[in-house]
């Protein structure tokens, strides 16, 4: 099968004659070829183009090939590199391999050996990328849905920042999807084979947060019957996500700062310094600069955490994404539960959804879509249904409680139907004909439901 696009190969060598010879060979094999005459020029070009493979000379004036490899590793680039040298020796080959080079060839390279090495490197890279895609599908991390400029910018930032170990501070209102951004930073990182460990700093009492983060030794305090491994150690080799970091106590802030500075933690009640290799991501719905001004948050910790800031906008600032999100949520729910199968939104319903305020952001939209899918009497959810159900007087706690009260689908469906009919009978002052017309069923059918559920005025 013919390739649909040309794979991009970068030639980095300070000898133009070598670059010219290699370019002719590779272009004949249908690769798209870029050239760089120095290490600096190479790194600049990599920042502009998505390179699939690089041929890199070891001995160059200025920044040599080994230094370029070190820079590539620091910046998180994972495309394969084939090293070239006119002075091949075992030590150079070993060093290149340690830095992650795929192969080491002597100049001038044998044509067949070069092309075989290039094909093998690209095939291996293709398998690695496919494996990552499969693991992302298996991990069921939802996509970041939206075509608005802020969401496009967030996705682009994630792709640039994720391969590095830079710390990221994610800000935004509750329900905007800050955790999802953190999960994708992990998924696109080199640490995605490692753990993703989440800590909600607001949900853990201040006196227990230190033990949660750093662990404790047996007998460290009353109730510490066994040694406990903290979240920093659990996240070793992976990512630690500190959610609601703005709610962390000053004492815990100081200890987190030390851990970030030294990559070392000490368990509560212990004295052993334990090295940890953790990338820290954090999120907050607070204005940390305001918290710093009020002496509630450490400025030095803020600067440690906020190497790369990402702000997730509220839903009211990206209303054009509401249609994509609502349809996505309904489709996702249909894949999990037959009650949602065949349900869809009319165009008028989408317009109505865009008009609502969404103070709870994406989380609120998801809950409303689920409520509409369950309680809508028709497969087509229209604007009238949204007016009646989406923002009805049915309290969220009452509905969420129902979700937890029933394990049997039929029982839950009947309880929801009972609640739905009661609500509309009361809304229409128990006018049976009007209620039946509003909810789209026959009057005799409504009478049967009232009798079945023993609904009384």
Give an account of the 3D structure.
With 457 residues, the protein is an alpha/beta fold. It folds into four domains: 8-136, Response regulator (Rossmann fold, 3-Layer(aba) Sandwich); 151-313, P-loop containing nucleotide triphosphate hydrolases (Rossmann fold, 3-Layer(aba) Sandwich), CATH 3.40.50; 320-392, Helicase, Ruva Protein, domain 3 (Orthogonal Bundle); 401-457, Arc Repressor Mutant, subunit A (Orthogonal Bundle), CATH 1.10.10. It has 20 helices and 14 strands. It has a five-stranded parallel beta sheet with strand order 2-1-3-4-5, sandwiched between helices. It has a five-stranded parallel beta sheet with strand order 7-8-11-6-12. A two-stranded antiparallel ribbon has the order 9-10. Mean pLDDT is 85; it is low at 393-397.
Write the layout of secondary structure elements.
Elements: E1 8-12, H1 16-28, E2 32-36, H2 39-46, E3 53-57, H3 65-75, E4 81-85, H4 90-98, E5 103-106, H5 111-139, H6 149-161, E6 168-171, H7 178-187, E7 196-200, H8 206-214, H9 231-234, E8 239-243, H10 250-262, E9 264-265, E10 274-275, E11 279-284, H11 288-293, H12 299-305, E12 308-311, H13 322-336, E13 344-345, H14 347-355, H15 361-375, E14 380-381, H16 383-390, H17 396-405, H18 409-427, H19 432-439, H20 443-453
Parallel strand pairs: 1-2, 1-3, 3-4, 4-5, 6-11, 6-12, 7-8, 8-11, 13-14
Antiparallel strand pairs: 9-10
């Amino acid at each position: 099968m013919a390739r649909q696009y040309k794979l991009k190969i970068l030639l980095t060598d300070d000898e133009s004659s070598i670059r010219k010879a290699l370019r002719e060979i590779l272009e004949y094999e249908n690769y798209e070829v870029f050239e760089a005459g120095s290490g600096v020029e190479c790194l600049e070009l990599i920042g502009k183009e998505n390179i699939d493979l690089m041929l890199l000379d070891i001995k160059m004036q200025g920044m040599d090939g080994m230094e370029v490899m070190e820079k590539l590793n620091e910046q998180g680039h994972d495309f394969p590199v084939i090293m070239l040298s006119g002075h091949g020796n075992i030590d150079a080959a070993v060093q290149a391999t340690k830095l992650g080079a795929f192969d080491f060839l002597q100049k001038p390279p044998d044509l067949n050996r070069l092309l075989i090495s290039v094909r093998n490197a690209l095939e291996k890279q293709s398998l690695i990328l496919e494996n990552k895609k499969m693991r992302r599908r298996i991990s069921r991390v939802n996509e970041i849905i939206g075509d608005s400029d802020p969401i496009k910018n967030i996705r682009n930032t994630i792709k640039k920042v994720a391969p590095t170990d830079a710390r990221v501070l994610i800000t935004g209102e509750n329900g905007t999807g800050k955790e999802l951004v953190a999960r994708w930073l992990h998924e696109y990182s080199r640490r995605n084979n490692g753990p993703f460990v989440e800590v909600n700093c607001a949900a853990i009492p201040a006196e227990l947060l230190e033990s949660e983060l750093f662990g404790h030794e047996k007998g460290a305090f009353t109730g510490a019957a066994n040694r406990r491994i903290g979240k920093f150690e659990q996240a070793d080799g992976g990512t630690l996500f500190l959610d609601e970091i703005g709610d962390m106590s000053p004492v815990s802030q100081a200890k987190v700062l030390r851990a970030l500075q030294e990559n070392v933690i000490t368990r509560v009640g212990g004295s052993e310094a334990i090295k940890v290799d953790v990338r820290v991501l954090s999120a907050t719905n607070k204005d940390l600069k305001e918290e710093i001004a009020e002496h509630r948050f450490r400025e030095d910790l803020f600067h440690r955490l906020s190497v790369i800031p990402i702000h997730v906008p509220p839903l009211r600032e990206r209303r054009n994404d509401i249609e994509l999100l609502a349809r996505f949520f309904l489709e996702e729910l249909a894949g999990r539960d037959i009650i949602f199968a065949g349900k869809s939104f009319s165009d008028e319903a989408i317009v109505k959804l865009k008009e609502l305020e969404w103070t709870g952001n994406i989380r609120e939209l998801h809950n409303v879509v689920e409520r509409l899918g369950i309680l809508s009497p028709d497969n087509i959810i229209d604007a009238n249904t949204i007016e009646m159900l989406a923002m009805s007087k049915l309290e969220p706690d009452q509905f969420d409680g129902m979700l937890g009260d029933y394990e049997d689908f039929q029982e839950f469906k009947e309880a929801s139907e009972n609640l739905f009919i009661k609500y509309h009978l009361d809304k229409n002052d128990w006018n049976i004909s009007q209620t039946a017309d509003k909810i789209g069923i026959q009057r005799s059918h409504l009478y049967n439901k009232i009798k079945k559920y023993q609904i009384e005025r």
